[in-house]
């Protein structure tokens, strides 16, 4: 539309340093928003229709602005996120107008770096703005999760969306997933956060993610608890799935404490213990992820673990800043030798949370802090 006003919203991906499969159990996690992001631009549309196109994904989405389409049936499949966002906003009394969307993203798809959540958060920000609905950042996160569940059918937790909206440059976020308290914690200056894709795509809709979540909920119910957040290790000693959640919560708290005090030597062993728990107790690792963790450790990383829900995707590792490039190169060689696959490594920086592309201010005003 000639002369139409274009507005654009950005939402970052995330890497979770430690604390996976804890968010839906009201536990703790320690992610950071990263310098890979999804941008959603809007211009006024016509005929009560939302149209969306992507620079990276195939096909044009055409759907009803009133949310009357089925998000699980619309084609192309990524259009389910558009419909999901419209429907989630309608539940919050937003009337999305006719609007045209352009989506671009530098978050790798199927990597465990929350490309889908970055898309969902970007869509919710953009469509809420178009509808004139003012939501606080926690409600943006909840609405984006609602949209994503509608699109995929996967009953995810809230960590990814909270990270995307509350990110703080130079900081990881200690998130208490029970009351949504978010505490930014400075990253030690001497470390570099590295990410490497295993070459095995991750698809949660076809994985055992929902089954794992159900297992933790059953364990809490057997103990008469609302969630495993309140369980002790003694109570879950004989239940591998529950044992991972409870022990992982403790590792997150210890990791955050070590970051606050500058005890960087404690970080590596905690990452390795987390990976072992995800591999042995929660059964969400893969031979490739295990090999990539081993390759990073042999290459001189101070610690490494799978990141995200598992079943493929990425490994996160820490190294000293001076050694980061050499560690990545050696890890790629070691992984190739072990698996015949090519890893795709890159260093990431912590960035601010989602918002208008013209606004990259500091810590969002709605963040709340509490010491764990």
Helix amount, in percent? 25-40%
Work out the number of β strands: 12
Give the averaged pLDDT, no decimals. Answer: 92
Order of helices and strands: EEEEHEHHHEEEHHHHEEHEE
The structural domain count equals 2
How many strands, what sense, and barrel or not for the largest sheet? 8 strands, mixed
CATH topology of the largest domain: Ribosomal Protein S5, domain 2
Low-confidence segments, given as residue ranges, are 359-372
Radius of gyration equals: 20 Å
Total of helices: 9
How much of the polypeptide forms β-strand, as a percent range? 15-25%
Kindly report how far apart the N and C termini lie. Answer: 51 Å
Give me the secondary-structure category: alpha+beta
CATH architecture of the largest domain: 2-Layer Sandwich
Envelope shape: globular
Write down the CATH class of the largest domain: Alpha Beta
Give your account of this protein's structure.
- With 372 residues, the chain is of the alpha+beta class.
- It folds into two domains: 178 residues, Ribosomal Protein S5, domain 2; 162 residues, Alpha-Beta Plaits, CATH 3.30.70.890.
- Helix content is 35%, strand content 23%.
- The strands form two sheets. Strands 1, 2, 3, 4, 5, 6, 7 and 12 form an eight-stranded mixed beta sheet that branches. Strands 9-10-8-11 form a four-stranded antiparallel beta sheet.
- The C terminus is likely disordered.
